Amino acid sequence: MRTPPAAVLCAALFVLCASGTALAQDYVPTAVTFSGTDLSQAELLAVTGLHSGEPVSRERMQAAADRLTGSGLFIDARFSFDGETLKFELKPSPAVVPVEYDNFPWWDDAALNTAVAARVPLFHGALYPGGPMRDQVKGALTSLL
User: Is the whole-model pTM more than 0.85?
Assistant: First the structure.
């Protein structure tokens, strides 16, 4: 007995729709944690845009990991979800160096670091020289002038 082509098409569409729904699944973590860094959990949450108790897709988790590595402070950001906790394992970049300020005689380094940190997320006096944070620090310093 032959299966009608319409039935095969309907079955194929059902499988495609069902698998698409599974791929777009949202997860609701009860906690979001970060390891491998001394930066505060609150700062890291602000940069990732993630919040516990809020639905998040795998794509958003990956985008958050990409934002962390994009800062230049980390060479790797891996995430896992165990059904309750969304965990990010961060590997700091060995290329991060302390910032040195020239031609700011009216401020000391600590005051400048504090002023820049108020404007640049994750900045605490050090950065990856080739990363986007460098331009953000320049902008913050320019705004102080």
Answer: no
